[in-house]
Every structure is written in structure tokens, then in C-alpha cells.
Amino acid sequence: MELVNQSDLDALFDFLLCRTPQAWIEEALKHEEILLQNHCYLEQCAARNALQLMFRCPDKTDVLSKMSKLAREELRHFEKVHALLTKRGYAYKILKPSRYAGLLNAEIRKREPGQLTDSLIVGAYIEARSCERFASLAPHMDEEIAAFFSSLLKSEARHFKDYLTLAAKYAGEPIVARVAFFGEIERSAIESPDGLFRFHSGVPE
């Protein structure tokens, strides 16, 4: 199994402004079915977002290439999570989404090139947080889920870098301030009280 190396994890942890709170991990261990159902849904969302970027950027060859590969990987992940759900006797259903993506997407600028830049930065944060949560959860899960989450780390770590690279290329200006802006929103979503448990939710109330 090809796993992400420590330097890639360190880069990811440096990018995020906080780690997953222990209280969320403890809550996740009580809600395996919800965790896997929501994970399944999020893999679909990740593939959809990549395809949407392809439709938005037909003239950007590198966006088409990276997002096409990303969409295929996310759909393979969806298939694996769905198989795991079925194996464990859970029915797949789409749950009410968490506030997480909505809080980030609400701050995306409406005009280009800012809209594309922000969309890519938000994509980077979502992928990075997903990877961080897999790394945080794996040591606490049973052997099968731990191995599965660990297997996802490498691609998720690469995805966040791909999003950031594209954001920097097409912004037309430095992106440090925008990355920091969304980083604070992301941190607040993760560290503040949240009444709805989901894969990307905040601290359980």
C-alpha cells in the first residue's frame, strides 16, 4: 500500500490552521454509520466539483487534466466507501450537509479571476481537511476502516497541492492573503461548536 510520506503530511498540517479537536474524534467513534454515509456523499461532491471546474475552464489544459484525474479518483473512492457501507449492513443515503463547505463557498468572489481563484483555494482546504481527518481517525478505527482511510491519504494530499498550484497560476496576483482569509474561516468551522455531526463538522455541542 502506497501511503503519503511524512513530509507531505507535514506540509498539509502546516497549511491548515488547526488540527481536528479530540472531541470530534470521540464523537466520530460513536457514529460509524453517519461517518461512512457522509464520507460517501463527500466523494460524490468532490467528483462533481472537479467536473464543474472542467466545464468552467475549457481553455485551461492543466485544469482539465488535473480535474479529470481528480474526478476519476474521487469516484473510485466513492465506489470503495459504498462497498464498505454495504458490507457493514448500512444503507447509503444523503444526509443533511454540514455547514462546512457552505461557510467557505459563501465567501467566494462573484467575478473572475477572483471567482476561480477562490474556488480553487476552497477546494484545497476541503481536500486538506479531508486528508487530515483520515490521518486523525485512522489510529482509532478498526483494522479495515483504518487501512482504507490510510489508503486515501496520498491522493488527498496531492489533490490539495494541485488546487493550490492552479490557484496561484491563474490568480494574476499573490494568493497569500486569500489563502489566509479562507484559512481563518476554515479554522472557525472546525473549532467552533456544531450541533450536527458530519465528516467536516466542528466541535460537538
TrEMBL record:
<protein>
    <recommendedName>
        <fullName>tRNA-(Ms[2]io[6]A)-hydroxylase</fullName>
    </recommendedName>
</protein>
<dbReference type="GO" id="GO:0006400">
    <property type="term" value="P:tRNA modification"/>
</dbReference>
<dbReference type="Pfam" id="PF06175">
    <property type="entry name" value="MiaE"/>
</dbReference>
<dbReference type="GO" id="GO:0045301">
    <property type="term" value="F:tRNA 2-(methylsulfanyl)-N(6)-isopentenyladenosine(37) hydroxylase activity"/>
</dbReference>
<dbReference type="InterPro" id="IPR012347">
    <property type="entry name" value="Ferritin-like"/>
</dbReference>
<dbReference type="InterPro" id="IPR010386">
    <property type="entry name" value="tRNA-Hydrxlase_MiaE"/>
</dbReference>
<dbReference type="InterPro" id="IPR009078">
    <property type="entry name" value="Ferritin-like_SF"/>
</dbReference>
